[in-house]
Amino acid sequence: MTASNPLFEFTLHMGDNALILGQRVSAWCGHAPILEEDIALANTGLDLIGQTKLWLSYAAEIENKDRDADDLAFRRDGRDFRNCLLVEQPNGDYAQTMMRQFLFDAWHHPMLAALTNSSNKRVAEIAEKSEKEAAYHLERSTDLLIRLGDGSQESHDRMQTALDDLWRFTGELTSAGDVETSLGKENVIPDGSAISDQYASYIQTALREATLTIPEGVGMRQGGKKGIHTEDFGYLLAEMQSLPRAYPDAAW
Amino acid sequence: MSLAAAKPSIDDIWRWLNDVPDPEIPVVSVVDLGIVREARWQDDALLVTVTPTYSGCPATAVISFEIEEALRRQGIEKIKIETQLSPAWTTKWISAAGREKLKAYGIAPPVDGASCAGALKLPSSVNVTCPHCGAVDTECVSQFGSTPCKAHYRCKTCLEPFDYFKSF
After folding, report:
1. Does pTM top 0.80 for this prediction?
2. How far is A85 from chain B (nearest CA, A)?
C-alpha cells in the first residue's frame, strides 16, 4: 500500500482497531469464566465487528480500488494493518483481557464522542452509531476493572500484572503523527491533546478506585499505525484470514 | 392499467410493514421497534429506509430480507432498501404498543435514565420494573443479555430473572 491518503489511513486505523479487538474478544466465546461474561464478551465482539464494517466500507470507498470491507479485512497483509498495538496483544488470562478492554474503551469512547462533531459527515455518522455502543463497553470494563482490582489478593495481583504488561501500549492511542496533524487541521478528527487529557484523567480515577498502580519509567511502544506490529499479530491474522484465503469468495 | 394506478398507497405499505416481525423478538414488528424510518415511492420503485439497532446485530440482514419478502408478497416488484446511520437508532423510537408487547412477552421495556449503576457512577434513581410481578426492587446482573439490545436483570421480590431492553 503506497498511498498515504490521511483519511484512508485514519478510517483503516479505526476499523482495524475494532476488527482486531473484535477478533481477540470473540475467541473467548464458549470459554469465558462464567456465562454472563461469555455473553457480554460475545456481544462486545459483535458490536466491534459491526463497527468494523462501517469503517472499512468507508475506507474501501475512499481508496476506490475495487476492494470492499471484506477484502480489506481478509486479504491485507500484516504491514498494511493500522490498528494500535494494544488491541492485538494476546488474551492471556481474564485479567489481561479485561485490562486490555478497559485501556482501549477508555480511549475509544471519548474519541468516538468527539468524532460525532467531525467536519466529515460520514465519519460523524459512523461515530454517532458506534459511540452509544462504546459507552456500554466502557461502563462494563470499568466495573470489572474495579471489581477485580479491588477484589481478592489473587484478582488484584493479576490485574496489576496485566496493567504492568499493557501500560507500554497506551501511549500510541493518543500519539499524533502526520495523519492526525493533517486531519486535525481540517477538523475531521478532534484535537489530540483534549482526548489525551480525558483519557489520562479517566484512567487515573478508575485505577485509583481499583487500587492499582500505574507502573513508572515505562517506555511507550508504538508502530501499529504505521504497520509495524508485534509478533502475536501474525498468528492472529493467520487464523482470522485462513478461511477466506483458502476459499476466496466463498459464501453461504 | 397504468403503473401509477397499480401503486399501493404509502398507508397500506406501512400497514404491511407493521406485520413484519422482528426476527429476535417476534412479538414486536420492525415498525414497533422504530427500525423502519421511511417508505416512499421513487418513480416505480419503493424506497424503504431502515436503521440498524446495533451495528453488529445479526438480525439486521434478516430484517431487510423479511421486509423485502413481505412487500413482494403484496405484489411490489421494485424495492430498494437503504440503510441510514444518522440519526442513530434510539429506544425512544419504540412505539407505545411495542413497549406493551415487550412487557407482555416478559421483557422489561426501556426506562429512560435507568442503567446498571457503574462503579464510577452514582446509582440510578430510576428502576426497571419486573415484567413478571411488577415489583421495582430489581437488580442488574450484566449489561449484556441474550442479544445486544438487552441486559440481564433479576427481580429481588419474585426472584425471577428477566431480560431488560436497554435504554439506548
Report:
1. yes
2. 23
Query: DSSP string of A66-91?
Result: S--HHHHHHS--GGG----HHHHS--
pLDDT per residue as tens digits for the range A118-146 = 999 999 999 999 999 999 999 999 999 99
Q: Do B15 and B75 fall within a single domain?
A: yes
Q: What is the ipTM of this complex?
A: 0.85
Query: From CA A95, how far away is CA A104, in angstroms rounded?
Result: 14
In the block, residue with C-alpha cell 496489576: A160
C-alpha cell at A179: 495523519
Q: Which fold has domain A6-246?
A: Ferritin (1.20.1260)
Q: Which residues in chain B have Cβ-Cβ distances shorter than 8 Å to A133?
A: 54-55, 148
Domain that holds residue B112: 106-165
Secondary structure (H, E, C), B25-90: CCCCECCCCCCEEEEEEECCEEEEEECCCCCCCCHHHHHHHHHHHHHHHCCCCCEEEEECCCCCCC
In a domain, B101, yes or no: no
Mutate to test the interface with B, among A19, A35, A36, A43 (most CBs of B within 10 A): A43
Amino acid at B16: W
